[in-house]
Amino acid sequence: MRFSPYAWAKLIYLRDRGATEVGGFGITDPDHPRFVKDIVLVSQTCTAVTVAFDDTAVADFFDDQIDAGRYPEQFARIWIHTHPGRSAEPSSTDHETFARVFGNCDWAVMFILARYGATYAELKQTEKNGSERMSVGIDFRDDFNGSNHVAWEGEYVRCVREAAPALEWEPALWPDLDGAVPELWPRYLL
Description:
The chain has helices spanning 5-17, 55-67, 72-75, 92-102, 149-159, 185-189; strands at 2-3, 23-27, 35-36, 38-41, 44-46, 51-53, 78-83, 107-114, 119-125, 131-133, 137-138, 160-162. By secondary structure, it is of the alpha/beta class. It has one domain (2-189): 3-Layer(aba) Sandwich (Cytidine Deaminase, domain 2). A hairpin with a 4-residue loop joins strand 8 and strand 9. It is built from six helices and twelve strands.
């Protein structure tokens, strides 16, 4: 799996912009279905361990992409989200969501970027039983546009709503939790 420098810079910006997870879709070209050239957010409600896309926003995103002449393989097969901790390993909820939402696709990718650069990429293909880990890279061969923090900030503000946390978690106060499986946090906090 490869990212354009523009898409990678945008993803890092979105990851570091807030204290929650953030999710979106990878946009690709028809001839390069696993080369992400942009990342698009939709309206979502996020916590430190969840992302919930607004169903109407997802439907509108699909309509807009079809109107732009894209096929689902170019905008709806690569699910990208961030983890605010150090671990990019998918949670049980990530695995369940990937199977439920993308289970009927001929192929799909779940990609996670955590703080400090840890990544996880998994390719699921229907002709193969199961999934396989993917390597991740940034492709600098072509010219690319510079970053656009103003536009990215506008997209973040329009699309991301932070849900009230069930409990406060500050990584500096709980360093042994950073990277721990989220389902185990309450046990550590007790």
